Amino acid sequence: AQSVTQPDIHITVSEGASLELRCNYSYGATPYLFWYVQSPGQGLQLLLKYFSGDTLVQGIKGFEAEFKRSQSSFNLRKPSVHWSDAAEYFCAVGEVTGGFKTIFGAGTRLFVKA
Amino acid sequence: EPEVTQTPSHQVTQMGQEVILRCVPISNHLYFYWYRQILGQKVEFLVSFYNNEISEKSEIFDDQFSVERPDGSNFTLKIRSTKLEDSAMYFCASRIQGSSYEQYFGPGTRLTVT
Description:
The complex is a heterodimer of chains A (114) and B (114). Chain A has 114 residues and is an all-beta fold. Chain A has strands at 3-5, 10-14, 19-21, 24-26, 32-38, 45-50, 56-58, 64-68, 73-78, 87-96, 100-104, 108-113. With 114 residues, chain B is mainly β. In chain B, 0% of the residues lie in helices and 50% in strands. Chain B is globular, with a radius of gyration of 13 Å.
């Protein structure tokens, strides 16, 4: 079965500092990879996705992620964090079986300090 | 921009009662999903629905759960006899047909079973 691991339960960064959230996946074929953000009490917003092609993908809100097949990783980065980025971030992999479903990691809570 | 909507935003019910959670997927989407997120835990797949039938369900989706598309716009999740452990955020999602594996998530319904 496919799985997603986010090794950091929570991370604290200073406003203006760079950010990297780690994600490792387990999947037999070329994965469909996603990063979602969830603000407190809110739904899931798609930040970016990787299906194929360029391994560095750009997303909304200044986020980017890099797919590294050799490391089974899809880490999320942002060069300069804003206080409004404080939220829960979920890495996910799409599983294509009879249909399609998304398997989520446990999430990383991002705290931003002034 | 079209979006998935869910009603109600918060539902409180007593154990043993039936609840129906409602979703309006994006109008030209053909695949529909329910996920749930127990407080503090990861988002979990419940069921996928296509062409008026369930295409896949998880082990969580037991006989107390059912889904229906009663008309051309709504997609519902029914829990027949709620238990305390059904308390969670329930997310509806939809996606367009084809190889675009991007799911669009609704804002969620917070279900509290007392």
